Amino acid sequence: MPSVLSRLDAAAREAFESLGFPGNIAAVRESDRGDAPYQCNGAMAAAGIAKKRGEKVNPRDIAAQAVEIMQANSAMGQLEIAGPGFINIAPADDLLTARAEQLLENPADGLNVETPKTIIVDYGGANVAKPMHVGHLRSAVIGEAIKRILRAQGHNVIGDVHMGDWGLQMGHLISELADEQPDLPYFDEAYEGDYPAEPPVTMDDLARLYPQASNKAKVNAERMDISRVATAELQAGRRGYRALLDHFIDVSVAALKVGYGNLGVEFDLWKGEACVDPLIPGMIEELKTAGITEEDDGALIINVDDKWDSETRTGTPPVMLLASSGAVLYHTTDLATLVDRKAENNPDLIVYVVDQRQALHFEQVFRAAAKAGWYAREQMFHAGFGTMNGKDGKPFKTREGGVLRLEDLMQIMHTAARDRLESSGVGAEFDAEERDEIARKIGLAALKFADLQNQRMTNYIFDPERFTAFEGKTGPYLLYAVVRIKSILRKAAEQNVVSGKIAVEAETEKGLVLSLDAYARAIELAADKYAPHILCEHVYRVAQSFSRFYAECPILADDVAAEVKASRLSLAKAALAQLEHGLDLLAIEAPDRM
Ligand code: ARG
């Protein structure tokens, strides 16, 4: 069943068309004046058109004619002409009731697109061996929401973590391990046997070895060279180093699965830069044969902008396929990944959810892939995002000035939520274990909602106090709304009150149904713009509409007639179903009670 708004919209367009005007001037939209839920301003535009045709008509007269036609449509309720010719529109009560029944039956009604696509969402992007930090948080949270929103529309969506596992950090790790444990068979070039199945390191070792090496290399050029050589040898295929790389990746993936899992983020593919390495020589040959590569000071490049001027450095700089040392670069692995994806998944679209500071990198890669003829430029989209900042307005750091680890950040949120529960007395009646689990969920919801409700590109300030508030546009407010409805449903079951036929009567009931009605539109907009904040806005609005409804329309009070109870209970169920559906798309999980 189409949404209420689309029914009204179609009726208004038809009316204006039958009066000889183009339908698109009659678009119905939510009213910004409080007198009716919707408005149509077509009469003003129609009068303008009539004037151009040399007719002199008053917009109010056109509005009156349109209203007369629209009135005959069963979707229409009260219609009213205001001011110079605005048409205020309320939908028919029957339509609202039918729509409510339907949303109760299927909260995801109307979300599906006509032609589903195969879409890869590239997000997460953690680096092997380096612990995940807050920079990866936004990618994981935003990417997961975008993936779920697109999936809710019926697309075939594949989430790929695209780990960073092919850079200098590998050379650092290998050479540092060689220093600590030179007798391992991986370093013996003469060794021809099988390597041990057990990794020689733990995640803690990796987390220690990497900064150890990189700190040394920062102040010691010779130590840096050793790491560079190790990286080059690895990339050239040195057997022992490849075996070490596989161990490092296995150990890191196991740890990353835990980290992302705690965050409620799941990937379909655990691929990375290293796994496309075998494709690189063939890809480079192909690009050379296609005649789109050039030598530049010993490096191999692809020009992606005719207007690029290397003197003034204006325009888009070329893609670097191979450095003059022969080393493979970030451009190269991303291009090879595009080749791999084409062969493996043949996606219609690839969305990269990566820090906006990498915008130029993606622009270059996309142009090169289009120039090679692998994809059309619009099949690749970089959904960038701003940074999470500290109160000083700079990217968030620990008190010591280092990058904050994801797990520490989650701990901060957990603690903030626990404090909030304590100070507000919420959940005081539950045992310590349940309270702690509730605090964990609130902390996560607070963090995710605070992140997702911003437009992607804006930077925001990390403020656990504000994020965990129960009032205002926050994660905890939404969890509270969900838990409150769940508790009403539990009480109803105890009192043997059953839900039944819906009759939408009170203004706040109408308001609630119209809020629910806007879901499909919100999902469509959020998907088109890769903008989870639009969905956040929607669920917040539903929660508020429910609150208003429940304040005016008690469900279980003694003086409420049985069939009214049944109807209101159904509305509460419909609201809960949609809130849970929407929050799930944001990967936000609510407790059963709190
Ligand atoms: N590993 C990269 C980083 O930490 C992010 C990877 C993003 N995805 C991509 N296809 N380049 O900056």
Largest sheet: 4 strands, antiparallel
Q: Distance between termini?
A: 36 Å
Given the C-alpha coordinates, what overall shape results?
A: globular
Number of helices, where a helix is a run of at least 4 consecutive DSSP H or I residues: 20
- CA radius of gyration is 29 Å
Give the beta-strand count. Answer: 13
- Structure class: alpha/beta
Strand order of the largest sheet: 1-2-4-3
Mean pLDDT: 95
Ligands and ions found? arginine
Query: β content, as a range?
Result: 5-15%
The percent of residues in helical segments reads: 40-55%
Low-confidence segments = none
Structure description:
The chain is of the alpha/beta class and 594 residues long. It has helices at 4-18, 42-52, 59-71, 93-105, 134-152, 168-180, 203-219, 221-235, 239-262, 280-289, 330-344, 359-371, 406-424, 432-452, 464-467, 475-494, 507-517, 519-528, 532-552, 562-585, and strands spanning 28-30, 38-40, 76-82, 86-91, 118-122, 156-160, 293-296, 299-302, 319-322, 349-352, 380-382, 388-389, 460-461. The strands form 4 sheets. It has a 4-stranded antiparallel β-sheet with strand order 1-2-4-3. Helix 6 crosses helix 7 and helix 17 (507-517) packs parallel to helix 20. The radius of gyration is 29 Å and the shape is globular. The model has no long low-confidence stretch (mean pLDDT 95). The protein binds arginine. Arginine is lined by residues 122, 125, 127, 162, 164, 334, 352, 354.
